[in-house]
């Protein structure tokens, strides 16, 4: 592949969909320059085209509809001047890829069952860039990670943000390094045997820099979401809006070589058409997968608790390969911390969805049957919710299990991690249970060494009114829940962002190093034991006792034995223990006649006869 500077000068074609426009002009030039204004040519379907003179370098440009102020391209690949400035063209073919032998995650087996690692580019390293993240990839390889999941990189207003306020889904945030840096990052991951999953947001755009409505009916008042009018997926003009979404997804797979996409809050994709946009996307990704010759995956964040999300389209499902399972997180969190406020209430047990058992009974249900709310009453939602999962038909690896995520940490008042709430032994129990479960496990960045740094909610909006609204809204929300107003971090304060950056000195230190070794050993064990890589749910067995506070997760000849109590006890095991494969506290873990003796907050993985 020729390098950018060696490529011949060629015309560049710009196009934009503006179906109701009478005229569209392109403004070529960077901010501060006197732009060259050129009329565009209309074409069927509401499209407009313009072709430049031959040029080698990128073009800065923006579109003006019917004489209005020039705005960025709805399909912009690069916003080096911020989300309010002009777009810049990007040659996706200029990168010289080195991953020609890449077969996909897990040596071509794909993402299901892989160890996924969720990270935020801006806080993963002090520099907060994709290139600086490359320098830490060997840590992930050593940990045993298979797939790196990047929180959204779409361009957003300001310097830092979680990414869910993106307004340019085709662009890569310039402060992260722009689109070329993402190509370099994916290439570097593949060189190390790591797959890449990109978090994408198709259900809404952020509050600053959203100019889609200037161009066409991208939104509709026929449906509403928590962010306002929904994306137009089923009204007049929806055909091109659906293509805007699907083309975006295909582009990441094709031009940036990513291996999976995590689709944010798909339950907010309001689509009453004859064929849901997710099913359409799934089928097109399957076609591209065949063309590229490597596995591609779609992972949904869904609040619906319905396995139809991961059912193939040929069987009437939405066709997602996997989905996040918050019920597993909630059950683990409540069993470990005892918290039961808000949506945690049902997971404490002795409640409408689980009247005859406590938190460990709830946890046992999620570990075997995926959801607590599977047609049962949900107190938080004030309705019956979800549907049962057919354990004999649905692969457990189609659900991601985890102890932490960006949401479950960052949406707490002060962004405190599980390690701030429980003892090291309790975190070790939580890690052991989800890393030896039938689900696809996901680790949140820093969790593996019990990072002391929080992950807080941060933004950097430029508009003064929006800045104040975000700051006041966040603090007032938690003040109403009993927090002191001043104790809730200000999202707009740079210190909030800086506090959330990982401290890379910690993994080699004391208790942090011990936790890191525990996670590494669990992942190694998972990979080496056939019973732990089996996704069959109908062979998972869990026994527990809410009063005595113990739980045993059995998968074939391997069992994870956990003592949730603070005092030592012998935990009964459903078969003779042939040996201890791994223990959090080996010196205090012994095989007893009636089971396994564990210290308080102890856990071990054992071989059964």
Automatic annotation (TrEMBL):
<dbReference type="InterPro" id="IPR014756">
    <property type="entry name" value="Ig_E-set"/>
</dbReference>
<dbReference type="InterPro" id="IPR044901">
    <property type="entry name" value="Trehalose_TreZ_E-set_sf"/>
</dbReference>
<comment type="similarity">
    <text>Belongs to the glycosyl hydrolase 13 family.</text>
</comment>
<dbReference type="Pfam" id="PF00128">
    <property type="entry name" value="Alpha-amylase"/>
</dbReference>
<protein>
    <recommendedName>
        <fullName>Malto-oligosyltrehalose trehalohydrolase</fullName>
        <ecNumber>3.2.1.141</ecNumber>
    </recommendedName>
</protein>
<keyword id="KW-0326">Glycosidase</keyword>
<feature type="binding site">
    <location>
        <begin position="406"/>
        <end position="411"/>
    </location>
    <ligand>
        <name>substrate</name>
    </ligand>
</feature>
<feature type="domain" description="Glycosyl hydrolase family 13 catalytic">
    <location>
        <begin position="91"/>
        <end position="474"/>
    </location>
</feature>
<dbReference type="GO" id="GO:0033942">
    <property type="term" value="F:4-alpha-D-(1-&gt;4)-alpha-D-glucanotrehalose trehalohydrolase activity"/>
</dbReference>
<feature type="binding site">
    <location>
        <begin position="262"/>
        <end position="267"/>
    </location>
    <ligand>
        <name>substrate</name>
    </ligand>
</feature>
<dbReference type="InterPro" id="IPR006047">
    <property type="entry name" value="GH13_cat_dom"/>
</dbReference>
<dbReference type="InterPro" id="IPR012768">
    <property type="entry name" value="Trehalose_TreZ"/>
</dbReference>
<keyword id="KW-0119">Carbohydrate metabolism</keyword>
<feature type="site" description="Transition state stabilizer">
    <location>
        <position position="407"/>
    </location>
</feature>
<dbReference type="InterPro" id="IPR017853">
    <property type="entry name" value="GH"/>
</dbReference>
<dbReference type="GO" id="GO:0005992">
    <property type="term" value="P:trehalose biosynthetic process"/>
</dbReference>
<dbReference type="GO" id="GO:0005737">
    <property type="term" value="C:cytoplasm"/>
</dbReference>
<feature type="binding site">
    <location>
        <begin position="326"/>
        <end position="330"/>
    </location>
    <ligand>
        <name>substrate</name>
    </ligand>
</feature>
<feature type="active site" description="Nucleophile">
    <location>
        <position position="264"/>
    </location>
</feature>
<dbReference type="InterPro" id="IPR013783">
    <property type="entry name" value="Ig-like_fold"/>
</dbReference>
<feature type="active site" description="Proton donor">
    <location>
        <position position="301"/>
    </location>
</feature>
<keyword id="KW-0963">Cytoplasm</keyword>
<keyword id="KW-0378">Hydrolase</keyword>
<comment type="pathway">
    <text>Glycan biosynthesis; trehalose biosynthesis.</text>
</comment>
